[in-house]
From TrEMBL:
Highest taxon in the source lineage: Archaea
Organism encoding this protein: Haloarcula japonica (strain ATCC 49778 / DSM 6131 / JCM 7785 / NBRC 101032 / NCIMB 13157 / TR-1)
Listed name of the protein: Trehalose-6-phosphate synthase
SUPFAM superfamilies: UDP-Glycosyltransferase/glycogen phosphorylase
GO terms assigned for molecular function: alpha,alpha-trehalose-phosphate synthase (UDP-forming) activity
GO term, biological process aspect, one: trehalose biosynthetic process
């Protein structure tokens, strides 16, 4: 069994300066309708874990320059960030429209995303997608080569960049290269659906360290390597692969959240007014309990099953009609792909049907919002919710499952969690469900609403402890310390 890295790593393992490489950039420049340029900082786990480290250590972050004014403000793609008080460099890689279509909407999100989420029926491996994925990974490698100083470790992030490590290794044989794979890694029987599986593995094995959220993903990766390259020497106990001139350590290094930041935002949130704004004044009767779901409109998130489960619950428990409202906060995503557009339409239709069926003059069963909520509002919404429902079919980790308990600063709140999210491996105190089991989801929501005070508090205490143990502050140090023990 691949060991999980010890929770407390040495800060000394983190280099004084590093190069981070990711698809998304931490700061983008966008042009408003009136022509003014404004800066946007990225949300999400990756940026909130890595931006503070880059700010304290310095170095260069290489990423796709996706903002429409990105190149206008960056000389040869280079700009110092954060824009308000610069501490490190951002190197923006400009991508053509064809590259974005083939690499991002194509290979990354119509081949690797469904493959790793074990949803191969959605894979579409158009040959041009692979060509663009290879070309863009080369482009990233070229950019790394122009900015990395000798001795600066290079840390690649996620499934967009599986080939870039090999391309950098060819240019820099002695460089220290790392990768963190933020999404699940599939079983070998699924991975072989990919027509380019061996090339992808070869690209990744150019790294000294590869991190995954769970030991199970790391182990599946090793099984895939074993099947593809029988001549490789694999030690599962230490997670080490030796193949040709490459020696790679494969580790489980779960990424959590900045717990204190979420807790602070929840503490200062004006919960009553956030509840009013999100629910709409007339529907925000404070005696109505709230269940909450927060996700991108991605087909891996299990939203339709959850809506069906809610319908079952209101059907079999008429007394719960008017007693609780489910709030779905949804973000539109990857709409260049038809499957994502269809998914959004299906979710909206399903919610409308449930609201038509059960709604009354003064109670709306499901409140759906695509509003762009800032972090403070989101923390207030978590705090207002009695139950969070996180039921993805599969998910690398799922940080909503970490944020919700951290934001429950009043000591109440229950988490219904899919057993197939990476978070289920790490969080204690959840009400765990199979995300395809509609009855089980309905039962779990019902149970969460009816748990006694003592059990709610006990579960929440355990949840908070597990979330604190994975605080993101240690994640970077853990990844680098794995490299030291090679
Ligand atoms: O979970 C994987 C991931 O790539 C995250 O790193 C990112 O926050 C999320 O998906 C959003 O995806 P995209 O960059 O395609 O909008």
């Amino acid at each position: 069994m691949v060991p999980e890295l010890s929770v407390n790593a040495q800060d000394g393992a983190v280099p004084d300066s590093l190069v981070v490489v990711s698809n998304r950039e931490p700061y983008s420049h966008e042009r408003d309708d009136d022509g003014k340029i404004r800066v946007q900082s990225a949300a999400g786990g990756l940026t909130s874990a890595l931006d503070p480290v880059m700010q304290s250590r310095g170095g260069t972050w290489v990423a796709w320059g996706s903002g429409d004014a990105d190149m206008a403000v960056a000389e040869e793609g280079m700009i110092e960030v954060p824009p308000s008080a610069p501490t490190y460099d951002l190197k923006r890689v400009p991508l053509s429209d064809a590259a974005v279509q083939g690499y991002y909407y194509g290979y990354a999100n119509q081949v690797l995303w469904p493959l790793c989420h074990e949803d191969t029926g959605r894979m579409w491996a158009e040959p041009a997608y692979w060509d663009q994925y290879r070309a863009v990974n080369e482009q990233f490698a070229e950019a790394v080569d122009t900015v990395a100083d000798a001795g600066q470790p290079v840390w690649f992030q996620d499934y967009h960049l599986a080939l870039a490590p090999r391309a950098v290794r060819e240019r820099r044989p002695d460089a220290t290269l790392l990768q963190f794979w933020h999404i699940p890694w599939p079983a070998p029987s699924v991975f072989r659906h990919c027509p380019h599986s061996d090339v992808l593995l070869d690209g990744l094995l150019a790294c000294d360290v590869i991190g995954f959220h769970t030991a199970a993903y790391a182990e599946q990766f090793l099984h895939c390597v074993d099947r593809a390259f029988p001549a490789a020497t694999i030690d599962t106990d230490s997670g080490t692969v030796v193949r040709g001139g490459d020696r790679t350590r494969v580790v489980a290094n779960p990424l959590g959240i900045d717990v204190e930041a979420v807790r602070d935002r929840a503490r200062t949130a004006d919960v009553a007014s956030i509840r009013d704004t999100v629910l709409g004044g007339s529907r925000s009767d404070p005696s109505i309990r709230l269940a909450l779901g927060v996700e991108r409109l991605d087909y891996s998130k299990g939203i339709p099953e959850r809506i069906e489960a809610l319908a079952h619950l209101w059907e079999r428990r008429p007394d719960l009609r008017g007693a609780f409202t489910y709030v779905q906060k949804a973000s539109r995503t990857r709409e260049g792909i038809a499957a994502y557009r269809r998914y959004r339409a299906d979710v909206v239709d399903a919610i409308e049907r449930v609201n038509d069926r059960f709604g009354t003059g003064d109670w709306q069963p499901i409140v759906y919002t695509e509003a762009n909520l800032d972090n403070e509002t989101l923390a207030g919404l978590y705090r207002a919710a009695d139950v969070a429902v996180v039921t993805p079919h599969r998910d690398g980790m799922n940080l909503v499952a970490h944020e919700y308990p951290a934001a429950c600063v009043d000591g109440d709140g229950s988490l219904v969690l899919s057993e197939l999210a990476g978070a289920a491996t790490h969080l204690d105190g959840t009400l765990t469900v199979n995300p395809h089991d509609i009855n089980a989801i309905a039962d779990a929501i019902e149970r969460a609403l009816e748990l006694g005070e003592a059990e709610t508090s006990d579960r929440l205490t355990r949840l908070k402890h597990s979330v604190e143990a994975l605080d993101s502050s240690q994640w970077v140090a853990r990844q680098f310390s794995a490299g030291q023990s090679l």
